[in-house]
Amino acid sequence: MKLFASRSARREATWAYAFISPWILGLVVFTAFPIIASLLLTFFSAQLTGDSRNFTFVGLDNWARFFSDEQAWAALGVTLRFMLLSLPVGLFIPLMVAILLNSKALIAPGLFRVLWFLPYVIPFVAGVAAWRGVLGQDGPVNGVLQLFGVENPPFWLNDIGWIYPALVLMGIWGIGSAIIVYLAGLGGVPTELYEAATVDGAGWWSSFRHITLPMITPVIFFNLVLGIAGSLQYFLVPFVVNGGNGTPGGSTLFFNILQYKTFFSYQDPGYGSVLAWVLFIVTLFFSLVLFGTQRRWVYYAGETK
Amino acid sequence: MKVKRWRLSTAFAVLALIVSACSGSAASPTGPVAITWFVGLGTGTDAETQVPVQQAIVDEWNAAHPEIQVTLEVVPNDSAVDTLLTENAAGNPPDVVGPAGVAGSNGFFGNWLDLTDLIAESNYDLSQFPEAAVQSFNVGGQGQLGLPFATFPSMMYFVPSLFEEAGLNLPPTAYGEKYTMPDGSQVDWSWDTVREIGMLLTVDSAGKNATEAGFKPNNIVQYGYGQPWNGAPEWGSWFKAGQFLGSDGKTLSIPDGWVDAWTWTHDGIFKDYFIPSGDVIAQTEWGEGNAFPTGKIAMGMSYLWYTCCLGDVLKTDWNIAPAPSYKGAVSPDMNADTFRISKGSKHPKEAFTFMTYLLGEVSARLLDIYGGMPAREADQAAFFATKDAQFTQGVHWDIAKESYTRVSSPSAEAFIPNYLKARDYIFADFTAALQKDATMDVASYVSGTFLPALQAIADEKP
User: Fold this and answer.
1) With contact defined as beta carbons under 8 Å apart, do A218 and A298 qualify?
2) DSSP-derived secondary structure letter, B440
3) Would you call B282 an interface residue with chain A, using a CB distance cutoff of 8 Å?
4) Domain spans in chain B, listed from the N-terminal domain onward
5) How many domains are there within chain A?
6) Which residues in A lie closer than 8 A to residue B87 (C-beta atoms)?
7) Mind listing the pLDDT tens digit of every residue in chain B (462 residues)?
């Protein structure tokens, strides 16, 4: 074994580091540094502007404040409620669509794949702005409902009872990427399994339940992890819909919006950092639970147990 | 050896690049000074009517003053606060900021430059403005933070045709005048009177008004009164001027008369039915928050700037009346916009020179696009002549001028610690709840929920 690399190998390594240094620099400056800085900020009271500009060590005060902050807990509740509602929809609708798109009976599947994926490539802000019109009081959705005899169609974006369904509906706009992932998973299921099942007299449902579903559990797991993280970090849609003001009745004051407002709008980076870390801890908790339980329900072909 | 020299040269080049990148855009001692004019905290962001005029003014200035080059930075109102906060926090604040009102500037408490020295150095003539107007920008402990520019007194907007249709007399045309009720009795033009005639002007789909038996509050097609684009502090101030913050600078309390004002509004929505609820005014049919211009709201209290937004439906079918009285006294709150200089400006002198240009030579052009009444009394006649050309129905502008002379103080937008969060809570939570929660007992909600929550927010930033 050579303890010291040759001169040319060292030179090669130097060049390699030189080439990846922009990425390392970016990682350090834009990711690692903010992570560490935000953790340190949680122990400081920081006023970044004005006469009272200061930077004072306050120990665990900011963390203690979180536990008595009703608004923060309410925002966490809003976020978790929305996650419970949006996650099943965001998980199973793409799966259903992917199964349909994967069907051999479908004419022009390529066209439909493009159509389903198309909204995903449109800037989401523009999409949400369009959805505001679609779900508006005089929007086409309510127009259709009135055609079917609904006299007082929902006031989607201003009614506490309808705002979450409205947000979930808007979320369907962005399921294109999940569909693609499911399609990849469905395409990876060995056809001989289906052939064997057909020979054994299995119908569509049996094949789906006993072959398709188990074989794509890694993909479901992947989408579930991303879905939970995405729901917990939900920000863009409510921010575009009502400027993040929480209307109606605080129902859209999601945790990430409160965190953003605390950090930037209210210029309270110390407590804003606590909220960011709380969100990280909650996300980590759900991720650990998922990774801890995956051995029970996620099937990896080729895995030896 | 060659490699070492090459590495050394590269290191120097990188260092030079970093140094030059970090050195900012400070002008050389002999070159032109670059300053920025930030617009977005208040009016001034309309791309069609306002931005081109402001840009033309900047272009003219730059052409005439090569030594001070101004860049106009227009930020949409929704994101202006965050943008300015970030620029301040980064130590790169714009030099001149405005137009911005009291609320817009209170969010940046401590960030504005005291102009006292610059005014003295340049012998700027303050006598051109009313003394009280100059003093209104002298903020305790912080100095002279601005100079009078655009004023927006408040008054009652009304739709004459709806009064005529209901067989009601029009509101008074001057402060102190009585209102003649349908039975011929002469009464004070008070908030009680507004409630009474508001109910007569509120009509359901069957044509019954809100005082008649069989009136259906679920089928209202016209309301007597609406609150366009304002919230609980304004509603309170129009009853009696006051502010939450006490003299110790820490303790908050509810000003006298404000609970009465909020109860008046809440009852008007859920008991007397002459004011549309939050759910109603959010609807497209009712203007999505700006219901008055739909032509289905008979009265609405607002500021002079509201002439900006009366839409196409009313055309000339609107006029103004005095602010109603509460317990015999009127309290016309006023909005006042002006320009301020950031305390962190690297070129305060040049910024002041440019700011006085905005306040002076080109002020008429700016006031025209902002819709603000000139603080300089000498300019007011020309301003209202422009308004008369724009609104030909013969608006009683003397009422606006008199509201200005009777302006109440402190402002409805007065300072509260942790201002931006406090205002967020007051508007997004409390004001919304007043307009939506039919079961609210206003007095107990205010003392048991609203005030403690507001105090807690203020205490976060002592």
Assistant:
1) yes
2) -
3) yes
4) 32-151+336-390, 153-334+409-460
5) 1
6) none
7) 455 555 555 555 555 444 444 444 444 456 899 999 999 998 899 998 899 999 999 999 999 999 999 999 999 988 898 899 889 888 889 999 989 988 878 888 888 999 999 999 999 999 888 777 788 788 766 789 999 899 999 999 999 999 999 999 999 999 999 999 999 999 999 999 999 999 999 999 999 999 999 999 999 999 999 988 899 999 999 999 999 999 888 999 999 999 999 999 999 999 999 999 988 888 878 888 889 999 999 999 999 989 888 878 898 999 999 999 999 999 999 898 999 999 999 999 999 999 999 999 999 999 988 888 998 888 899 999 989 998 999 999 999 999 988 888 888 988 898 888 999 999 989 999 999 999 999 999 999 999 999 999 999 876
- The two three-digit tokens of residue B26, written as one number: 């400070």
Asked if B432 and A138 come within 8 Å (Cβ–Cβ), the reply is no
Torsion of CA A40, A41, A45, A50, to 10 degrees: 130
Measured between CA atoms, how close is B110 to chain A, in angstroms?
Answer: 4
- CB of A51 within 8 Å of a chain B CB? The answer is yes
**Does residue A11 lie in a domain region?**
no
Contact B111 A264 (CB under 8 A): no
Structural domain including A200 reads 68-122+171-297
User: What is the CATH number for A188?
Assistant: 1.10.3720.10
Establish if A210 belongs to a structural domain.
Answer: yes
Alpha carbons B268 and B277: distance in angstroms, whole number: 9
Other residues' Cβ atoms within 10 Å of the Cβ of residue B25: 7
CA B85 to chain CA centroid, Å, is 19
Phi, psi of A298, rounded to the nearest 5 degrees: -100, 125
Q: What are phi and psi of B297, to 5 degrees?
A: -125, 125
Q: Does B88 touch chain A (CB under 8 A)?
A: yes
- The 8-class DSSP code of residue B321 comes to E
Cα B190 to Cα B76, B148, B166, B167, distances in angstroms: 38, 30, 20, 20
Kindly identify which residue of chain A lies nearest to residue B279, measuring between CA atoms: A158
A174 has pLDDT over 90: no
Return the CATH number of the domain spanning residue range B153-334+409-460.
3.40.190.10
Choose among A23, A86, A76: nearest CA to A226.
Answer: A86
Q: Classify residue A59 as exposed, middle or buried by CB count within 10 Å of its CB (0-12, 13-18, 19+).
A: exposed
Residue pLDDT, tens place only, A188-247: 999 999 999 999 998 989 999 999 999 999 999 999 999 999 999 999 999 988 888 888
**Residue of chain B nearest A54, judged by CA positions:** B89
Give the position of tokens 């509050």. B217
For residue B192, give both structure tokens: 């009680």
Q: Model ipTM?
A: 0.74
Q: Which CATH number fits domain B32-151+336-390: 3.40.50.920, 3.40.1400.10, 3.40.190.10, 3.40.50.1010?
A: 3.40.190.10
Task: For residue A245, give the nearest of B109, B284, B428 by CB distance.
Answer: B428
Same fold, B32-151+336-390 and B153-334+409-460: yes
Q: How far is A46 from chain B (nearest CA, A)?
A: 10
